[in-house]
Structures are given as C-alpha cells and as structure tokens.
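Bug #77: duplicate submission created two jobs. Keeping one. Sequence:
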Amino acid sequence: MIYPKIPLAQSLIEIFKAKGIQHIVISPGSRNAPLTIGFSNQQDYFKCYSIADERCAAFFALGMAQQLNQPVAVVCTSGSALLNYYPAVAEAFYSQIPIIVVSADRPQDKIDIGDGQTIRQENVFANHSLYNANLTEYASNDNDIKINVAIHEAISKKGPTHINVPFEEPLYDLVSALSVTPKLLPFENESIEFALDEKFIQQWNLAKKKLILVGELKPNSIESSLIEIFAKDDSVVVLTEKTSNLHHETFIDTIDTLITPFSDADFKDFQPEILITLGGMVVSKRIKAFLRKYKPKEHWHIDTLRAYNTYGSLSQHFKTTPNDFFRQLFTKSIKVESTYKDFYSKINEVRKGKHIEYINEIPFSDFKAFEFVSHNLPKDIQLQVSNSSAIRYLQLVAIDKSIEVFCNRGTSGIDGSTSTAIGAALQSNKPTIFITGDISFFYDSNALWNNYIPKNFKIILINNSGGGIFRILPGHQETEVFNTFFETSHHLNASNLAKMFDFTYYQAKDETSLQNQWQLFMNQNDSPSILEIFTPEKINNKILTKYFKC
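Kept job's structure:
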C-alpha cells in the first residue's frame, strides 16, 4: 500500500476510513497532494471523483449526499479554491445535508506574509458550518479528536463541517507503511425520547380548523397508515409541495392555485386554529404571506433538530420525527365535526377545472411547456429541479406520484443546480431528469465538465432568453436597465455546449416540435442528452398573472 509521507495526512485518511466516509470529491491542486495521493491509492475502499471546478465539486458532492443520506467529503487546495465551496456549504447547512469540507492550507507561519495562494482559511465557514476543525501542522491526539468530531457532527446534526489541514512541503513524498495510529472516538447515536403532552392532544381534539403544511421531505418519510388518518379527518387540510414527495388524493398540492384568488374574507375563513409544519423550506411565497398575516392560534413544528419561526407564530417545537409525533397524537385523537376539509376540497376541484380550461386557451409559453412536460414525464424517475421559475411553475402542474422531486431550497440559489442534479443522478437507483431555466443552466455550465454523468441523464432546458422570473416580480418595466441588469436578456443556446460535452442535443420551439422531439429525447439512453425548449420572452409573465385571476 502507498501512503503520503506526512503523518497528519495519514491520520485524517485513516480516521475517514474507520468512520465509513467513502465518497471523496477532489479538486486538483498542489497543497492537497498528500490527501489526493492518500485517498486515490486506496480505491479498494474510497470512491474518488475528480471535479476541477470547486463550486461544481461541492454541489456535486451535495447531490450525492442528498441521495446517500451520508456524508460526502470535498477536498481542495489552499487559497481561493476553498471559498468556491461556500454556496454549497450554505445550501447544505439550510437543507440539512451532510458534507465534510477538507481544505489543505499553508502552515500558520506562512499566513499573511505575502506568500502565494494563501488566505485566512480557519473558520471561513463559521456562519454556516456545524463544526470547524482547525488542525495544527503535526499529527496529534488533539487533531485526531477534532477530525472525529467533525465527522460525527456532520452525521448527527445533518449538515456541513470543515476540517482545515496545514501541510508543509515536501508534499509528494510517499511511504509504504503508516507511521501513525490515529485515535478513534466512539460516538453513539443519540436516542430521541419523546412523549406528547396531553394538553396538545386536547388542543388538537378541540380544533375544527387544522392546517398541515409540508415542505421539502425525502420520499416515503411518512407512514402510509398515518397518511390515511389525515385523509379521513374532516377538520384537517393538508397542503403539500412537489418537493414534499407526499401524496394523497385529498391533499392539495397546488397551493398558489388554491389561495391566490382568495378575498380578505376567504383568507379569514381559511385561517387555521392549529398550523402544523414539517419538512424543509417551503417554495410558495403566497402561503408564507397568508400565514404571516392571518396567524394561527398555535403553530407546531416537527423536526428532530431545527424549527424556524417562518410565520411569526411558532408556539411549539416538537423534537421528534413526524411519524413518532403523529403516532402518539392519533392514539388519543378524537374526530370533530368540521366542514374545513370538504369546503376547500370543493374549491380545489373548481380550481383544477379552471386550470385545464386556461391551459387549453393559452399560446405556447413557459406555462404551456411545463404543463406538457409534467404530463409526459416517465413514471418512477428522480426529478431534479432548478430554482427561480422552474420550481415555481412545477408547483402549478400535476405530476405522477411515483416521481421523486428534489430542489436546492436551502438557500434557493441557482448557482449549483446542475451539479447537484448530476451528483444525485450518480447515486440514485432511478433515471434522473433535470428541469432548469436558461440562466440557471448557463450559470452552472461547468457542471457538464464531469466524467461521471450517467448515460441516461437528461436535461430539460426552458430557454426564454433571460431571467423571466423578474418579469413577474414587482418593479418590472420594459427598459434597458431592466433588460440588462435584472432579466439579463441574451440570445444564447445550449447546442455548442452539448457538442463540447458530448450531450445529444434536441430542440423545440413550439407545441408541435416539442411533441415530435419528446419521444426521441426520452428514448436516448446511449449518452446524456439536452432538450432545449425555446419559449417567448415577453408573454410569460402576462400569461402567469392572468392565470391567477381566472
């Protein structure tokens, strides 16, 4: 076996091995050479991936960790390379996804003396990292403990940690035997003891208007028997988003379609006595605005780790799993007479009918394209979605319940959507389709510079020649300033990028060509592929605005 000569590098690698950290995403550099050599020479255990662009590397790792539900490590050289990890670190922090950042560094005496490729790396992610292990130059028990803790915190608290490792030259020397026996700390999984207080059960049993709002969840997070209880309770309305991966015919999964036309009197009537939230970030701005203005008497959030007071009314954080909470609640719950579910179910059915009528009368546009795509997606796939318009349009259309949906909603940024989708595709046992807008796609185009893209990976690119979402937001004016600095109008297409990165390319410019190209695109599994759908630049906002008034 070949090992790096530097003992500190040996210690870190051996601790990672002992703790089960297998997936290592490495970006090229010199200062991290001891780690690169060490990990890559043990590929009977470690699975190493080479991604040149650090921002892409971190989001790629995040996508892998999203699917694996275990930490993935990213390794980089010293200097600004580390800073490129930050967007993915922040996303992992807010989405509760475990990644471990390992940054090589110069020794302390080289910092701030004008040496090359040197910055202040210690604690650089302090605001968005669960733990920062600032190692000293030489192998030691203290360093070993910090490495152990960084791994444990990433796993137990579900988020990013940072290990900063200073190395002195020479960096490339090798040895055939280990010179260290690193210290390993035994960490036990903390058991969650939870008992639901009777007073909450009593509040639940008395309330006639109970609203359950479900944000981002892993598929199959809620037991089917519990779902059926929700569905049969007349006093409960369940609102879901596509990223909740939670389905039942009685649940309302088009929140904005339901509530946007409401009058003030309608909102007051819809106002819940008890709001229960679970899952991660919620996409709908309209439901947030509603709940902030028409506050529930009680807001309960269920999560083992965190609770955000998103609506300014949080009254109780239950630190347990949704399954455990609802099992305890339903053992003593009593059905109460209520028209809450029935009334809004009927309104929702009316909205569905108007949706179909509206879609049939509008011209080809973003909305029309999303409607077509949603109805024609294959079953049993993983659907990755970029932020801004793409995820918002997806909330308005129906998709098959067998489709698993993921989106980087932690920070809601566009910066690494493609990279995340590719990392997720690599680790998923389902075919992956990625839906993105043009700005998101071109912004993260280095994501395609990746040797690990599955051959059946597909990108659906909606190209409306700019950031169309800004036409929907307040402040839109048809001026040079708006077009240049907000919408960022362009005339780019993905054909040359597809050619450069060996993607099979398809394009559609209207409903007929979309129908003609769709099956060819879906049947292409010999190479990754892109279907670029060109939509009109200036009518999408008008079509969407009118939709909410119909």
